[in-house]
Amino acid sequence: TLRLPFKMFSSHYKLGDPCPGHPYKGGTFHAYLPDNRNGQKTAVLLKKAFEQGLTFQIKSVDGEERVTWGHIPHKTSLDGGKARNGYPDAQYLHEVCTVL
C-alpha cells in the first residue's frame, strides 16, 4: 500500500479569495493507493493535482474556516469499502483517473 501524506498549513485568505485576510485552519491528510503500477501512476497524477492547488478547498465547519478535501476522490482508509472512502473498491483507480 502506498500512503500519500498531504500537509496544508494554517494561513489567511489572500487577495482575490472569498474572505481576504481571514484565517483558516490547515491539517494533515493521508490517502492510500495500491502499491502496483496503476497505483504508482495515480500517485504521480495526485501529486500534480496537489501542486496545482486542486486537491483541497476551504470550507466553513462549525463557524471555523478549515481546509478540507476537494472534489478529487481520495481513499482515506484501508478498509470500510467505498461507503467509508476505503478499500475494497474495484472502480476507484478508474474513477480517480477520470477526474484527474
UniProtKB/TrEMBL annotation:
Gene3D superfamilies: 3.30.390.130. GO terms for cellular component: cytoplasm. It is found in: Cytoplasm. Pfam families: DTC. GO terms for molecular function: ligase activity; ubiquitin protein ligase activity; zinc ion binding. Pathway: Protein modification; protein ubiquitination. Residues 4-97 form the Deltex C-terminal domain. Belongs to the Deltex family. This is E3 ubiquitin-protein ligase.
